[in-house]
Here is the input.
Amino acid sequence: MKIDFEHRQSAHCENGATAGLISHYGVEMSEAMAFGIGAGLFFGYIPFIRLNNLPLTTFRIAAGSIFKKVSRELGVKYKARRFRDQEQAMRVLDETIAEGIPVGLQTGAWWLPYFPDAYRFHFNMHNLVVFGKEGDNYLISDPVFPEPVVCASDDLRKARFAKGALAPKGKMYCLEEVPAQIDFPKAIKSGIRSATKAMLKYPLPIIGISGIHFLAKRLEIWPAKLGEEKALLYLGQLIRMQEEIGTGGAGFRFIYAAFLQESAAHLEDDRFGEFSQRMTDIGDRWREFAVRAARNCKGRAGADDSFPAMARILMEIADTEEKLYIDLAEAVAS
Amino acid sequence: MRKEEVPQDHGIADGLKEVAYAVDEDGRYVRVPSAGWEPKNISNYQAWEEIAKEIQSTRRKVENGEASPLAYHMARNLMDVGLLAQYMGIMRWRVKRHLKPRIFKKLGRDLLKRYASLLKVTMEELLDISLVEDPKIPGRDQE
Here is the structure.
């Protein structure tokens, strides 16, 4: 059994699964468009949530919300369910693909045998699409891989029932109805409104623009407060969050710039082309920050790479992002 | 980032090419395969080296009789007591007890079998960590 499903490699798994499923039903959707309409852009520096004993920094919205928001904005009807019983979860998966319906799954990356070792962590929010089964093997469109992959059913079962934080509990989702006519301008504007609101007005000082300021202030005193060694570990974690597989570079800023560029055509509004360029410049600044941070981690920091100098870059980024989000919010206000 | 600037620094990705977003000569966004980027390689190696240190120090503890072989396998699988307990479907305090050499020695065969299967080792390897090598750091040339 093999569904005619077009595999497209994406930067990020949730965007990719969302865009892939919707495109399958005849509405052409790029990864960047899914990310933008899904209001994926975000920033949070959350020192009290720890990952590998280091503070969490996030450049995107909570996992799962992109798919939900895109579906709501476009009027896509979908069915999502979790399972208690593992056998039943696999049986329902089989039955669904036998009907010719591609199925999105939430999985734990640790148990997927085709993952390179470098990415095999106990990370439970990895999305993929199952589009067929041959013998005991599932045919999988895993958005972050260049080609479709194959996974034995026992491994896939384990991945669907991975344990730990945000355990998938066998979660599967599939689309039931995709409207033939979609009002892209309306969906795009709504996506931008949500993202700019989160970045400008979130009522917590660790989120959005104020979150970047907060991080900058903290980062400046990391060496004094934590000691050199720990400060470098904090810095390394920050680069990983910004550049790790899935962000498309610069903590999703480049994907968002691609979305703004696509939006210019949909909205027939040239200003969005300029917004896109400004976002690209912001992304380049984030990359510059990562280069300097990495030099520190490698023990090759120059005079311009000090912690105060890096904090200044973050402050500048915060200011330029703030101006852009204010202009964007205004442009979609009507 | 411009298309021709998309970095191709081999390293942690170990051959897997990811999608990077960059602009082409006309300013249009395109998706470009990237083999990796040096800052990312550096920060990932930093993390893996921390993990490797933890695994090695756990091995020494086991060799010195301060911890049971289970502690080593747990570290090797990047798990903590909470996660291991969840996978085993037993209480955390029981896993904690199993990390003590004296108690681990007395564990029943069924429980050991379940540990071995979860941690992807044979029964012999579970009991004797000298049969198991420390994991390699991904994507780095092994000498």
